[in-house]
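quick one before i forget lol
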Amino acid sequence: MKKTTAILISSLAAFIIIVTWVGRGYNQITIEAENTARAWADVEANYQRRADLLPNLVEAAKAAGAREAKTFTQVAEARANATNIKIDAENITEQNLQAFQKAQGQVAGALSRLIAMKESYPQLKSNEAFLKLQREIAVTENRIAASRYTFGEQARDYNTKIREVPNNIVAMITGYKAKPYFKADEGAQFATKVDFGYDKKAENAEE
């Protein structure tokens, strides 16, 4: 009887330890996953903010007399393509992140051509609406860069957490998978720097 009781107590103690161990690991992973999702939401919000500014920038350019139908079309198409790509924070894969980044890169390229029109249309250099939007774009570009960096840091923390022992076993059981990272934009090392009219005062004003 005593032996049976001892076995039962030992089994119960082992069960409690295992449940506590699994629960603690699951909670840690869940916290990191939620932080990663929050960081991704910031990335999407900043890219969306840029997308929302584009039509106004195009209209300001048109109002100032710019006649670049091809560039305007490229901006509209790139924006539409990028905004159609939606990624669930819980299901960020290497493939869909690459598609997202490629689409956003096309927006950046079209935007660069739009900003560069100032060289062909000097009146844009004194157009208040165009310059204001240009400054807002500059602030947004910096926010995009910052949010991408934060996401990368958080994804690294999450990936580290699910690879730790014994969390790796918990992650395998619960279906948590590693998150991908942003890669350097294609051709970024060869790209000509575009003046987005960044102004620290403008950033402070936006905040």
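fyi The chain has a mean pLDDT of 86.
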